[in-house]
Amino acid sequence: MTIRVLIADDQALVRTGLRMILDNTPDLVVVGEAGTGTEAVDLTASTRPDVVLMDIRMPGLDGVRATGRIIANHGPEGPRVLVLTTFDRDEYVYAALRAGASGFLLKDALATDLLAAVRVVAAGEAALAPTVTRRLLTRIAVELPAREDPRLGLLTAREREVLQQVARGLSNAEIAELLCLSAGTVKTHVGHILAKLDLRDRVQAVVFAHESGLTGAQER
Fold this sequence. Notes:
Blueprint: E1 3-8, H1 12-23, E2 28-34, H2 37-47, E3 51-55, H3 63-74, E4 80-85, H4 93-99, E5 103-106, H5 111-122, H6 130-141, H7 157-167, H8 172-179, H9 183-197, H10 202-211, H11 216-219
Parallel strand pairs: 1-2, 1-3, 3-4, 4-5
Helix pairs in contact: 2-3, 3-4, 7-9, 7-10, 8-9
């Protein structure tokens, strides 16, 4: 299956570079380019991409608000948004994840990492680089007024434990090794967590864990 990608970035050279990488890959095709958030929202409606590569900082409607509008307009079955960021400067990434983005990627990532992230997001999974996730969400979460969410009561003790490790940015395999479980069991737990908490994907689970105070003890 060919994955349809929309590129949203206010820098023409960046868009050109991304297009060259994506269009030279057999299973990917670029269906449009947007230089502003508003254009990204409009082109998403007209081109129906599977994945939107979304820059955070764009004139007018920024990437955070554009992401929110795309998710609101198209729902859970709509296109996935993969945020592009320079990390050290773009602290709006957390807001983009809350708005519904399915992951983020550093702009200096290797082409192979970009292609892998696009495929992962298109498949309905979350593209979260573990080390970057820890640095970014830990850094920003300490500024949030964490409060326990009553929905935590829906989880079993084991599910809470798994969610804590997901919030740390660990993969299913890493969680399985840490908790002495099989990878399949961890995957099942993650699925139950998402269903019980009514969360879109793994990214939203990470955000929920930080906002609900579940990771507070680890960060202090």
